[in-house]
Amino acid sequence: MEIRLVNDVDDSSSRDAARAPHWIAEGANQETGTSLDIENLVRKYWLLLVLLVCVGALGGVASVVLSSPMYKARLLLEVQSVNEAWLKNSIGGMSFEANDVNIQTQINILQGGSFVKRGSDRLQPDIVPMAPTGRDLFSRLRQRIRPATQDPLESSRRSLNIAMATFDARPVNKTRLIELTCESTSPDIAAQFLNAMAAEFVEDNSQSRMQSSQKTSEWLSAQIEETKSKLHDLEERLREFVQASGNLFVGPESPTLADTEMSQAKSKLAEVQSLRIAAQTRYELSLKNPPESLAEVQNDGTLHSFQQQITHLRQERAALTTTYTPKHEKVQKVDAQIAQLEQAYQQQRDAIVKKIRDDYEALLKSERRQAEYYHEKSQLVSAEAGKAAQYSALKREVETLRGSYQSLLMQANQAGLGSSVPLNPIRIVEPSSPPAAPYKPQPLLNILLGTVLGLAGTAGFVFLKERMDRSVGAPGSLRSFLQTPELGVIPNLNLVANSGAKLLPGAPLVPDNGHTLSIAAKAGDDVSQASLALWSNGSSFIAESFRGTLASILRAQGQAKTQRAILITSPGPGEGKTTVVQNLGIALAETGRKILLVDADFRRPHLHKRFHLPNDHSLIDLIREEKPLADCPAEYWGLSTGMAGLSVLPNRPTDNNVARALYSPRLRAIFQRLREMYDMVLVDAPPVLHLADARIVAPLTDAAILVLRSGVTERKSAMEAFRRMQEDGLFLLGTVLTGWDVSNSYLKRHYYYDYAEGDRE
To answer: What span, in angstroms and rounded, lies between the C-alpha atoms of 626 and 391?
Structure first.
């Protein structure tokens, strides 16, 4: 068998346990879990939850019954795409192409206030539709609460006004459709109003198109006659101008004679200039370079033949000079031939160079003559430029007016064709019919929404209340703040009846020795009346909580010196310190030790009442007694509770100054004597924040335990009490949490282990 202890102190040292890292507290918080807190909150506030949920549901029912049923009608229109060749020239550029802009335009027209009024006027005011009557539960309740007493005509007008106010038109995405919707208290009026709106829209569109076609035809006829007259006048003016100009403009695309001659002169001048530039280049090369470097000289065949003959004769002379002298007849003959050929070569070369110069001079003269001719023609063309510009302007004006005339004729034909075809680009795809059932209110949705609002209101109230609650909550919630071990967690003693112990508040407890023992609080005490624990053969989880706390205390005593006198206090009254003292005393007595419970409250002592003991011989009597402590009788040092090893030193209120008793040197001697007589002394001290008694008595003990009550002790009070004890230099073993509501089965299994009767071995 394993018993889980709450926050047992570590085996290393008491100081290390007091300085436990924060992650221990965080881990404890994580173990509890959010869902466990929610279950606890639901158990705590279930009545409020049920009440607000019922109120929300009833509110949803009331909203259904008290609100008038609304019927929603629907109608679909299609904006058809019409051939642009028929209607693109209508007045104002109006086009019936089913694009987004056109559809939005039609929607804006439909939603106009004047158009909605025209649609409502189409309805026959003398037709009164039957009022809708439902057979469901909400309709019957509505008829009982608000019977139909209104005038039928007035009701019809009201329904029509609602339909007009809720009328809406919107495009259907990626289609040419427009959806018309409206709401009304009468399904017939809702459907009739939409049908009237659609019919009015279709008729208005058709009339608008007919009027547009008629105006277009009239406008086109007037424009055609006016354009025809202007075209005739312009053509006459152009013809007269051509004749007056001497037929210079032979055709609409032919230039004048002067233009042609100037163009030819310009081309000829350019050609002569190119030839002159080439001749000038050759001539300048002949002046700057030797004649043999000229291409004409190098490419001349005659000169090439002369060079070959001269070369041959020189070779022949060289051969003769090897045999004959230069004055020999044969040598002189060859020399004469060479001289003749060289002279002919020189004459031919000079002729080529002269020809290059003559060609350049001839081309230069020709260029000058051609430039003069071109200048003459350009002056003539400049003189005729004004006439050409006037001719071009007249010609363009005639062509423009002729194009406009042809376009007007085409538009007139198209307008006549469009007006002759009965075409309407607006089509009713799905007419509206009276809806069979109202679309709001929706009973299920309203009731569900009311229920959700009730849940939300409960959650908000609980959240605010819990956020405003500054008291200590679940185990481990203050460990990270105080940085001290949590020795134990004592559940709410009101749950004893649910824990398996068949005890009633105030009932006696019979241990194994047969003596009667009562540890119940009387009515009116701050501690719960059901502060009983089953310390007999059975083992309840409440008793185990005290045993677990005792185990933590004893393990803390295993380090350094043994704390034989332990003071138990709390930040304020009613936090369960006396209950902790009496039950820890019983748990310690079970271990075979000799235990004394000391009531150190000199103002409101009541530890003796828990055990039904007299307080004739009390702690205040020991302090006031003048005889030595060794001579005091045994009953002065503790009264037996009836349980082996457990005694109580009661106290009673003092009429004199309490400070005199607390600061008495005899009190220190009394505590020293008690350490010698008993194995352990538990001191029940007053609250540390309200009175200074606990801070005065605490130095006489070895350690202290701070008792906190879940849901009662505020965190600020706990931290202030801890700070005062730290400033006084008191050794704090840890804290004990009392009054914890162990309503969650998981937490109950995690912190405590309980036995059923059938599971005992």
So the answer is: 151
Euclidean distance between CA atoms 269 and 175, whole angstroms: 71
Cα distance between residue 635 and residue 650, in whole Å = 11
- DSSP secondary-structure letter at 255? P
Q: Are the CB atoms for 702 and 616 separated by under 8 Å?
A: no
* Closest of 680, 566, 753 to residue 14, by C-alpha: 566
* C-beta atoms surrounding 374 within 10 Å: 20
CATH number for the domain formed by residue range(s) 14-20+483-759: 3.40.50.300
| Cα dihedral 23, 25, 31, 32 in deg (nearest 10) | -150
Provide the β-strand partners of residue 181: 74, 168
Token representation of residue 77 = 């229109």
Across the range 718-726, mean pLDDT stands at 89
Q: Which amino acid is at 400?
A: T
d(CA 210, CA 420): 10
The pair of structure tokens assigned to 172 is 């259907």
Q: What DSSP element (H or E) covers 705?
A: strand 703-709
Helices and strands of the chain, counted as H and E runs: 26, 12
Residues 297, 304: Cα–Cα separation, whole Å = 9
Q: Which amino acid, one-letter code, is at 521? A: A
What is the chain's Cα-based Rg? 63
551 Cβ contact partners less than 8 Å away, ≥ 6 residues apart = 5, 8
Asked if the model's pLDDT at residue 520 lies above 90, the reply is no
Assess contact for 86 and 478: CB atoms under 8 A.
no
Residue-wise burial string across 387-423, b where 16 or more C-beta atoms lie within 10 A, e elsewhere? bbeebeebbeebeebeeebeebeebbebbeebbeeee
Residues 268, 269, 274, 275, CA torsion sign? positive
pLDDT at 6 over 50: no
Give the separation between CA 169 and CA 425, rounded to whole angstroms: 18
Q: Is 429 helix (H, G, I), strand (E, B) or coil?
A: strand
The C-alpha angle 459, 462, 466, rounded to 5 degrees, equals 140
Spatial contact of 201 and 386, defined as CB atoms under 8 Å apart: no
pLDDT at 480 over 70: no
Q: Which of 5-19, 232-246, 348-362, 403-417 has the highest mean pLDDT?
A: 348-362
pLDDT at residue 273 above 80? Answer: yes
Closest alpha carbon to 266 in 280, 281, 279, 255: 255
Tens-place pLDDT, residues 582-641: 899 999 998 889 999 999 998 889 898 888 899 888 888 888 888 888 888 878 888 988
Q: What is the Cα–Cα distance from 9 to 13, expressed in whole angstroms? A: 8
Question: CA 477 to CA 39: how far, in whole Å?
Answer: 18
Residue 482 has pLDDT above 50, yes or no: yes
Q: Which residues contact 697 (CB under 8 A, 6 or more apart)?
A: 567, 600, 662, 667, 683, 685
Distance, CA of 544 to CA of 213 (rounded, Å): 102
For 526, the 3-state DSSP assignment is: coil
Q: Is there a contact between 460 and 41 (Cβ–Cβ < 8 Å)?
A: no
Residue 575 per-residue DSSP state = S
